[in-house]
Specification:
With about 160 residues, the protein is α+β, with helices and mostly antiparallel strands. It is built from 6 helices and 9 strands. Helix 4 crosses helix 5. The longest helix is centred in the C-terminal third of the chain and has 26 residues.
């Protein structure tokens, strides 16, 4: 495994741990997984990986709020919109998409594009409600973190 210092990408290497160029021991948890910019998050994602649970789901639902997309298109769009800070691997996107579809939050349709079969996903009313709840939760969390970081007192 190698952590790209400036790109923030994780590279998996058959389950071995490695010391990164910034001196942090990186332990892979799965064969393919998403990565957030390591310089931005530092060891937070490593010391508390569950803290980042729900991030891919939130971002996928938000992007699909505007229009339907296929999996790799979602990966690229999230990467672009985050200013290249967030890179979600395909090994995370597809299980999240399938789970959201099973739960009724997403609908899918198969289409041929340039001779290739693609599955396009779109937000359902259930998905829109789920997005609203997740957005509220993450906004409250973000506000609380900002309060702690700035030393501001809660009014």
């Amino acid at each position: 495994m190698r952590l790209g210092r400036t790109t923030g990408e994780f590279y998996h290497s058959k389950g071995r741990e490695a010391v990164t160029d910034i001196g942090v021991v990186a332990k892979p948890r799965t064969t393919r997984y998403y990565a957030l910019n390591f310089e931005v998050l530092g060891t937070m994602a490593e010391s508390n990986p569950h803290f980042m649970n729900g991030v891919p789901e939130l971002l996928i639902l938000q992007v699909l709020k505007e229009r339907e997309m296929y999996g790799y298109e979602l990966v690229e769009e999230i990467h672009r919109r985050s200013g290249t800070v967030i890179s979600i691997g395909e090994g995370v996107v597809y299980p999240v998409l399938h789970g959201l579809e099973r739960s009724g939050a997403l609908a899918s349709r198969r289409a041929k594009v340039n001779g290739r079969s693609r599955v396009y996903y779109s937000l359902t009313p259930q998905g829109a409600a789920r997005l609203e709840g997740l957005s509220d939760t993450w906004s409250r969390l973000s506000d609380a973190i900002r309060l702690v970081m700035t030393g501001a007192a809660h009014a």
